[in-house]
Design a protein that fits this description.
Number of strands: 13
Radius of gyration: 57 Å
Largest sheet: 10 strands, mixed
Helix content: 10-25%
Strand content: 15-25%
Shape: rod-shaped
Length: 280
């Protein structure tokens, strides 16, 4: 070792040169001996315009979300590939306009159509025409004014009832509600035996008032003494309980103020061969 050190001291320049060559050539040898890495990267294919036109991308549709994976120029691209249908609007229940069935404006919804008599025969059942002309007035009278206890009028009121408008009525053998009214003698007769006779008044508005004769209006209390209409042109006078009478009828003096079936004039009076007091 001592000898080597003395040789290096004497020939230091030579030793430095040898060491330098060793380092340089050794580094080159190591570099050249290293393996060259493989280039696995493939160049993406290119297409001319004509080739792109004929290229059909592959697509895989996921059935749950409608995603389509397209291979475009070698690059996977995700797109939505489904058509969303516009739901057909449904009509809400409140948008329906129900067709309401109007309630009848009369006690009966349809009037009978018997043959009309041209000449009235007192007390004879039949259908009689009522000429129009200021006969819409329908006065009322308090039934408490009937005080003769042995009269058929009083007997009828003992059976009658009072409805929500204060009008007196009975229910006949057929279950029909009939209003107690007084009529001029020319329509249903003027004797005590006629009290309780059943009849209908067919109104010009199409309604039918089912009635029972509760009293008669004398000839001297009629227009022109004909016994057909009252002094104010009325055809019938309703018997009522004044305490319970409809407010409008009480103020105006006419049952027409109740409205509905009670308004307007009459077209026909249909007299039946039935008497509530005699047949029951």
């Amino acid at each position: 070792m001592k000898a080597i050190l003395e040789f290096v001291k004497k020939h230091d320049e030579l030793c430095f040169a040898i060491a330098l060559y060793v380092v340089i050539f050794g580094g080159l040898f190591l570099i050249l001996s290293m393996p060259v890495p493989n280039d696995d990267t493939k160049q993406a294919p290119t297409y001319e315009p004509s080739e792109r036109a004929s290229f059909t991308p592959t697509c895989t549709i996921a059935p749950t979300d409608g995603i389509c994976i397209e291979i475009i120029d070698g690059i996977p691209t995700a797109t939505l590939n489904y058509t969303q249908e516009t739901p057909t609007p449904t009509q809400k229940p409140e948008e329906f306009t129900p067709t309401a069935t109007p309630e009848p404006t009369a006690t009966n919804t349809a009037a009978p159509t018997p043959v009309t008599r041209t000449t009235y025969q007192s007390g004879v059942p039949g259908t009689y025409a009522v000429e129009h002309g200021a006969h819409s007035w329908k006065p009322w009278a308090n039934y408490h004014a009937i005080t003769a206890t042995d009269s058929p009028q009083y007997k009828l009121q003992r059976i009658a009832q009072t409805d929500e408008n204060g009008l007196r009525y009975i229910i006949d053998a057929d279950g029909v509600k009939r209003f107690c009214v007084a009529m001029p003698v020319a329509w249903c007769g003027g004797t005590s035996k006629d009290i309780g006779r059943l009849f209908d008044v067919v109104m010009s508005n199409g309604s039918v008032l089912n009635c029972i004769l509760g009293d008669t209006k004398k000839i001297e209390h009629s227009q022109k003494g004909e016994g057909r209409f009252g002094r104010k042109g009325e055809l019938m006078e309703f018997q009522v309980d004044e305490v319970r009478l409809h407010p409008g009828a009480r103020r105006s003096g006419t049952v027409s103020s109740i409205g509905g079936a009670f308004e307007g004039e009459a077209d026909f009076v249909i007299v039946y061969d039935k008497n509530f007091l005699h047949d029951n």
